[in-house]
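Entry for the shared binder. Reason: the reviewer on the internal report wants the predicted structure included alongside the sequence.
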Amino acid sequence: ERLTAEQMDEQRMQNVAYQYLCRLEEAKRWMEACLEEDLPAPTELEETLRNGVLLAKLGHRFAPTLVPLKKIYDPEQLRYTAQGLQFRHTDNINHWRSAVTSLGLPQIFQPETTDV
């Protein structure tokens, strides 16, 4: 039986979603290995990344003098859990961007704060 155009579109969208979740799982495992801590499931990881805490911790891992732990805002994510995203959380993303810039990652490959 031949698929309709709508069914083929649905299959393509499901494949794209599956591929995205696979890449997110790969990123999660890499971050867990770097940070030596357990991270939430891939379906929750995307939301967790918004506050930049994990990214700032990665920045500390790769450039500890540039991103000391004391510079990370809300490292235990208590404020984020209680009050949601705050403007100061963007500092975490900026710390991470500084760290990857110091490693030589070209700007074109770095997401903007609003992308995260």
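Summary line for the report: The first helix runs from residue 5 to 35.
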